[in-house]
Amino acid sequence: MSAEKLKQMYQERRYILDEMEKLKNDRQFLAQFKTPVEFIDWFKAFVDPLLNVQYQIGAQWILNADVPGVVAWLRQGVWNEWAANTVITRSITEYRDLIDTEFMNVLAQQISDECRHYYIRSKVLKMYGGSMEGFQPIKEWVELFDFPLRCASKRLEWPYFQVKLTSTLQVVELTSVYHHRGVHDNFPNNPRLWVQPYREASQLFMETFREIEDDELFHWSIAERVWMKYANTPEARAEILDCAGGALRAAMEARIRRVELSEKKAI
């Protein structure tokens, strides 16, 4: 499936983002959830069609990728780990008075995870014969990692900064779970990636991507924990949808663009 077909698939589901934009201003709708659990369950079900597109982006890309395409894709991935780490580190240093100390330990764990992912992806990239020399990040990915603090900073008060922050980066992590699952599930079905001298690199790619996928699921759970504590009013739920909608839109566009440029070996 080409990047153009993935764009079409996304366009067919953009109505979800448009509807979320309306729902964030519908206090009557947001008040209907009796508990944060009900709200979280609704959110996951509501965005599921978009998450399935993320799975297809990963699956269809890896099924059609060659080694130069994987190298191009990994170059952006290495930068992404650095960028994610930067966002979290800035959040807990520059805005530490607005971060609930209850969540400092899990955010610290995420920083550790992102550092490990950076190392892992760099190692796999090198095994495929690639490097970060001359790399320039894709514009859409720069915008994606600019978005969390930009959205959270719209309300620099307790607890809304925390709520909005975890409704951006951690929602991107949820899309990553599905995207990486699509890559991991379908990687064995592309014979071009299992020929010598790349078999060892591909095996490590498979093993590490399952590990990264598990970590990303934990990172998404940080949002669930924050929402469980604070998503108990229509106002807080509106702030969640405000940032989550933007994060989902940015993540969809960034990943499709990454596939497009990977296919052209232009990363």
Instruction: Report the CATH C-level class.
Output: Mainly Alpha
Largest sheet: none
Q: What is the CATH topology?
A: Heme Oxygenase, Chain A
Q: What is the helix content?
A: over 70%
Question: How many separate domains?
Answer: 1
Name the CATH superfamily assignment: Heme oxygenase-like
| Shape estimate | globular
Helix and strand content put the structural class at: mainly alpha
CATH architecture descriptor: Up-down Bundle
Rg from Cα: 18 Å
Beta-strand content: under 5%
Explain the overall architecture:
The protein has 267 residues and is mainly α. It has a single domain (3-264), classed as Heme Oxygenase, Chain A. It contains eleven helices and no strands. The protein has helices at residues 3-11, 15-23, 27-30, 36-64, 67-94, 104-127, 139-152, 160-166, 169-186, 199-230, 234-263. Helix 6 (104-127) packs antiparallel against helix 10 (199-230) and helix 9 packs across helix 11 (234-263). The chain starts with a helix and ends with a helix. The mean pLDDT is 94. This is Pyrroloquinoline quinone (Coenzyme PQQ) biosynthesis protein C.
Nutshell version of this structure?
With 267 residues, this protein is mainly alpha-helical. Helix content is 76%, strand content 0%. It comes from Pyrobaculum oguniense (strain DSM 13380 / JCM 10595 / TE7).
List the helices and strands and how they pair.
Layout: H1 3-11, H2 15-23, H3 27-30, H4 36-64, H5 67-94, H6 104-127, H7 139-152, H8 160-166, H9 169-186, H10 199-230, H11 234-263
Keywords:
Heme Oxygenase, Chain A, 11 helices, mainly alpha, 267 residues
